[in-house]
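Dissemination and training. As part of the outreach component of the grant, students in the summer workshop were shown how a complex can be specified as a set of sequence lines and then modelled as a single object. The example used during the hands-on session is reproduced here so that future cohorts can follow it. Participants entered these lines:
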Amino acid sequence: MGARYKDKNWKDAMRVRIDVNNMFEEYIGEKHGIKPEEVDEMAEKIKKAHQNINKQHTEGKLGFIDLPDSQNEVVDEIESYAKENRQNVENFVILGIGGSALGSIALQTALNDAYHNLRDTDAPNIFVPDNVDPERFKSLLETLDLKKTVFNVISKSGTTAETMSLFLIAREYVEQEVGLDDLRNHFIATTSKDSGKLRVIAQREGFKMFYIPDNVGGRFSVLTPVGLVYAAFAGIDIRELLAGAAYMKKLCSTPKVWENPAYINGTLQYLAYQKGKKMSVMMPYSHSLKDLADWYRQLWAESLGKEKSRDDEVINVGPTPIKALGATDQHSQAQLYMEGPYDKVVNFIEVEEFDTDLQIPDLYEDIEGVSYLRSKTLADLLKTEKRATELALTERERLNATIIVPKVNEFTMGQLFYLFEMQTALVGELFNINAYNQPGVELGKKYTYGVFGRNGYEDMKEEYYNRPNKKGKYII
Amino acid sequence: MGARYKDKNWKDAMRVRIDVNNMFEEYIGEKHGIKPEEVDEMAEKIKKAHQNINKQHTEGKLGFIDLPDSQNEVVDEIESYAKENRQNVENFVILGIGGSALGSIALQTALNDAYHNLRDTDAPNIFVPDNVDPERFKSLLETLDLKKTVFNVISKSGTTAETMSLFLIAREYVEQEVGLDDLRNHFIATTSKDSGKLRVIAQREGFKMFYIPDNVGGRFSVLTPVGLVYAAFAGIDIRELLAGAAYMKKLCSTPKVWENPAYINGTLQYLAYQKGKKMSVMMPYSHSLKDLADWYRQLWAESLGKEKSRDDEVINVGPTPIKALGATDQHSQAQLYMEGPYDKVVNFIEVEEFDTDLQIPDLYEDIEGVSYLRSKTLADLLKTEKRATELALTERERLNATIIVPKVNEFTMGQLFYLFEMQTALVGELFNINAYNQPGVELGKKYTYGVFGRNGYEDMKEEYYNRPNKKGKYII
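and obtained this result:
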């Protein structure tokens, strides 16, 4: 496709924008709408947030900010590795969970054909089991020709229970199929450069390794080898992806809230939360962006759902992200969004141009209720439904905004990833929380370690088994 | 598989139960927990709700209550039709949206192999596009051998814009492939018996027709031909499915809340909502129940999200259903559920026995942090993680309950469908709303009709185009 991302005009034509008109009083009414002055009044807080983000970045944290334009060497290595090995690979399987899987799934759904794995193409078939369901994983291992399959095992620490279990099982299946000597050609390890158990295993087995920078957390890692290795195998242009992120980084570098797409949307989401809109719906009208909403759901929930502020005050904060899909969910969730409590903000995603379209043929002219569809296209229908839903929500005084994507491609996906990451960083600052940890999931993990007999977790085992007895009369 | 559903012992062993221990003060603490007395105090309201449900049913409404045990003729017809035609069908495509698709998707994910469409089996490949995305639908039509494909077009009215558009396009593609004479062998129409546009079209074209009872709404229709025709083609035992629903119907026929699984869970969800837990998470720890959660999401949102009470009072009520998946979403949403606001109830689904399991092999004995996984199985891991998460949530005073499913099969799926339908009916009564309409989505539909030039919607077109001008400065 050439390096079109070096063409300024093309890039500007592909710029992702946010339309926040329907967040404001003028359109939504004074009861629920936000006043522009409320945004202005946030200026000082936003300035401080901006400084804080920059300060942390200068201190070597928030590595995600560097990813768009610091990875030349990494990209060279990934591209040449993929080029060399792609031809022999029929199936590419990602063994990872959460942040190690969701970015690749989002890329797959956005940039591959919707029925990629059923079609005969140059690119390998792609699988992301993303769970430890035994039925599903066994079926996968039995469905694939393991002689032609590569597994990318992704875990920074190498102790993620789900990922390592899948790896151990896959390793055994593959060894049985190809023998011990050939094992190294079927596994890639994507992990920390300097520490961790997966590194030790990969070195021992001679697996190819790619590295996740230590200052990039899992949910911010799609533009590291976590997502890029998969992308290169899938035939996705990773330079264009990074160029998109770099383009958005520039747009998001100003502290001026009215000019910064991440800051304006983040600020409005924050203000809406303060007004009792505790849920944030992401609703793309495009099947290919369906799993971007799922990726965002992790980013938003895990970053912003926190018990304590940075000052150690108990605040139990966090908007709940909800993924939805237009037009499908008009037939499932729209009734609630239109008439239920005023507790949501809807972020639509509208795609301006689809790669292809389908004309609705001119049939059944005499049948009223069907004939009006004639000569329209599916893209017409999808876009009209989006705007009709937007208008209806607005008339019902429901806050909504629209992220406008000129076309779904590598460049716009790169923009979207960076946009939402920076938006999340800002809102974390506004809530005065640490958006980069996840202390709330430790307890559950420790119980599992205890039950499974991991050294050092004997107490947890005891606590797990000493849970209060359940009452039979409460099991119906 | 034989008629095991006629064996009382087997049925009792397959009984779906609900464990609501962790909804109560005794386990959750007094700040957020529900007191058993609060449930007792609901007795009068529940009795009235029960009477109301029975009254509506006696009046010929709420047809879903009749489905488990009134469909012998329909089942005979579907089974013999599927038996006759199944062999020649390589692909079975459902053209429907919302309630016409979600039940079949739930059945497919639950009862077919996880990689069904990639494996060579007796049953046809199954596709449910469920949206009007042009890229995805075009890819489907080009991927399938249309000579060996049957489309089941599902719409009660025959005017659902999305379904009819897909049908019109599919019809043209199929005609080009097989010719006009053979068209009738590639389409089934599932629609109203007595009215509607799809009926007219099907009669004209000579399509096989199946009927949706007029007193069964879309989101309650999975156990009508809407779901059953698909199921029969997929090799699912529809008699066992209905037997499961009949079994649960019996369990849910008592007005005694402490003995009725639908009523106890419905009542507790209702009480939790009154205490500010406005979100209801459905989180199965089993990939195969993932899309049951999505089916439930429509049922719950569209039935209970209502502006007005039956007395025409503006109440803007409705809990927001959220689908999640264990263990995957422990790495995405659990942080928020553990530490965020106290605004959720989690309904776990735990599967007691999986169809198959995978042993984690005994490798890397010397590597601490990996070695503790040895000799366990994936099912062990999944179940332990569920219980660990449950325990951690409970310690953090977060309301949760567990739906226990002995095994995922037709009989338990039938139970689950009926259980959630009856639970929804009860909660609708408790909120004093009409749980069977969806007035909130009409406005958006009308705008689309207007823009597309459907007769009678000229006003809506005008209103659509007269929307207030958006401000450029709010598009960033």
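The CA atoms of residues 316 and 451 of chain B lie 29 Å apart. Students were then asked to discuss how this feature might be tested experimentally.
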